[in-house]
Design brief:
By secondary structure, this protein is an alpha+beta fold. The chain is built from 20 helices and 26 strands. The strands form 8 sheets. A 5-stranded antiparallel β-sheet has the order 1-6-7-9-8, with helices on both faces. The longest helix has 18 residues, at 543-560. It is globular. The two termini are 49 Å apart. Residues 1-22 have low confidence and may be disordered.
Length: 614
Amino acid sequence: MRLYNFFVFFIATLTLAFSVHAQNIISSNGISSFGDLKYKENFNNLDYVNINAPKGGEISFWAFGSFDSMHPYTRKGRAGAYSSIFFESLLESTADEIDSAYGLLAKSIEYPKDRSWVVFHLRDNIRFSDGTPLDAQDVLFSYELLRDKGLPSFKAVIKKDIKSAVVLSPLKIKFVFNEEVPKRDLINTVGGLPIFSKDYYLDNKIDFEASTLTPSVGSGPYVLETVDVGKQIVYKRNQNYWGKDLPINKGRYNFDKFRVEYYADYNSAFEGFKSGSYTFRNEASSKIWATAYDFPALANGWVNKKTIKHGNLSPGQAFVFNLRKDKFKDKNVRKAIGLMFNFEWSNKTLFYGLYERTNSFWDNSDLTAVGLPKGEELKILTSLTNILDENIFSEPAFLFPKSNIKQLDRKNLREASNLLDESGWLIGDDGVRRNSNGETLDLEILNDSQAFDRIINPYVENLKQLGVNASNIKIDNAQMTERKRNFEFDMLVGFLSTSFTPGSELEQYFGSASADFSIFNLAGVKDEGIDQLIKIVRAAKTRQDLNIAIRALDRVLRAEVIWVPQWYKNKHTIAYYDMFEHPENLPPYDMGVLDLWWFNKSKSENLKEAGALQ
């Protein structure tokens, strides 16, 4: 048992007792940003799991590029896929709610109605994978570690939002939040931080910021079995996992092992799947999905090809501008470049009509801004009139116009030409645009995926027709990682993802304070109006108010043209060898392959006898 300062413990406990008496304190098994929790105290299991799912077997996936680290919480190195699975958090969200989180390491929480602080009561049987106990000191250590040495995105949020943290007892810790920040989601945020072993880091004198292939000790359901640097990772289920019988975990984590095979490109990865080198594929290539699923394993019934509807938001995939570059300071330049991407032609010619165009940061939901602002959304925007573009009030929510199905849409070309002319980028006798200083309008699109050549190359051709000196710059995965971190790019493919109940992550992706250091703020957004709208979103006290504020933020973000949005699917397109099964009714917000699916041993044996697997 670790030693605690009895006097500090006594005073802290006494202070908490007075506080509880003085305030209307809520005690619960979880927390929802709005409304009630779906799962009440002492619930038996999550509704969407099969509590009788058998344990055993292996499932395998593929990953792109390479890796040289198993530490996902440092800027150094490229972390292996799924390397955060070792670590758990105090609270965990579910796949059938968008606002709630329930106790995982914490058995319960206490907090006042204003959510100005929270006390987490830890379970008394938690063990790290090395058998050592996890307690409140580990939680405090992890918080301080992420605050002082974590990724910039962690440090920024923690330092801004959390005033203090104090251990009240071996299984009790209190977090107090800063007075001036919105508090609706802060308990969820703190409850979602990964928890590390204090003894592991201190006893072994481990540098948290160093890249390493030896993962830190965690308390999660899986541990590392083997690693072949840059090629393969194998994880195995922790047979002594402390939390296997918790109601929130029943029917989950059913595979004894899961394996990740790394490939340099999509085509070689697909060939690996066809030959049985790995067994589950979430297909991202529309061309492969539409034309290449005619191989023997599928014809023989060894592989299942399936689509599954989902309720997830668009992932925000886009060509992202680097607004830190002077040439992109002018919004007209960004609009002109965006007009040259012909989604309609791409979808018909390259994607076989499988995709929808992304227009909103909250696409595939009712949170997207439409038409002219009105009602309560207009009231929010009107309160910021002095810092918003006046066009916000007079023009419909911005979206790039539809193109015809020819690769180069002449109407969009004319509009883009006019925009660049107005911005002083004039076309010369050689067909290239220059500014008053004689500088050409150069645009490098970074690309580390061979599969994207067929998308980027036609876009480059269209841009050259506009007079932009555009190029498809091919680099490897390691170079892409470094250039992203150092913001050394003009434009690249990125994911500006959002959520149904956004909180502090909005500041990481779109806040001015994060523009110069956070890799999540890929575009380098610095805009006072956006900053104020993020505050309004975070301060919303009802779901209705939040939805209205999100639409206002979506409208202003889109008007800034920080991206050239690409596409999304409202369904999963998956293929897998016929030895895996899943619950009949999957939850709307997570397909849960590693989480909910299970292995059928007899089907696996049949496949092996048929020679379907390597």
